[in-house]
Amino acid sequence: MTKVFGCDIQPLDRDTCYNLVTSLRDPQDQKAGWLLAHCDDGVAWGRKDNDGWRFAPHSFRRYSPEITPVNLQQLRIFNEREEILIWRQEAGFLGRRLSDSASPSKILEPFSENWIVLGDRILEGPDAGFTLIADKTGSRQAVPLECTDRDFDGKRPPLTLAVKHYFSIDSSDNGKSDATGVVWISATRLVALTKEVPDV
Q: pTM, whole model, 2 decimals?
């Protein structure tokens, strides 16, 4: 198996994944973080604090489906330290936990960047810590942030996902006699959902 640098990857078995999906209780008890679920009937966000998970209020539920073993395609639970990724397979759910570890060299250190979250306007809210946002195509999602119209006054959408990429290298350490030394991104995890404040 190819080594992924700067992180530890722990496989999660079907039972652990199913139990996490049905209870949304992390076996290692993450204290805070975010949740992003892609379901057959839409995208669902969640946010965890000391009081547990919070999901979109009833007023937004038609745009934020309930997460169940029947409709779930992929689930990410993430924070600054680690991410749990669960995905559907024909025989059930599988998953992995990815957390940071020491990197052996500067070249192989993880790389961080921000991805723009779809949405350039507010439709409703905020309500109970969530805001319903949309873009010009009509796509909508209830994000677990309190946003105002002013947040969307800038030239680009203000919401971003902080992500972290981890690298592998084609080397003789992987048992290859014809190693090329090529470095590539072999794992990516979500870190945080953030809101950029527009310039005045």
A: 0.88
Is 68 inside any structural domain?
Answer: yes
Q: How many domains does the chain have?
A: 1
Q: 153 is in which domain, residue-wise?
A: 7-191
Looking at 5-137, list the stretches that DSSP marks H as alpha helix, in order from N- to C-terminal side.
14-23
The secondary structure element, H or E, covering residue 45 is: strand 42-49
How far CA 119 is from CA of 112, 147, 169, in Å, comes to 22, 12, 36
* Residue 105, both tokens: 């060299």
With respect to residue 173, please indicate whether it lies within any of the assigned structural domains. Answer: yes
* Distance of alpha carbon 63 from alpha carbon 124, whole angstroms: 11
Peptide bond into 57 cis (omega under 30): no
Determine the Cα–Cα distance for residues 114 and 112; give it in Å rounded to an integer: 7
pLDDT in tens, 173-189: 655 556 787 888 989 99
In this structure, are residues 184 and 168 in contact, taking their beta carbons and an 8 Å threshold? yes
Average pLDDT over residues 7-35: 85
For residue 86, the one-letter residue type is: I
| Contact indicator for 108, 30 with CB cutoff of 8 Å | no
**What tokens were used for 161?**
């996902």
Integer-rounded Cα radius of gyration of the chain? 19
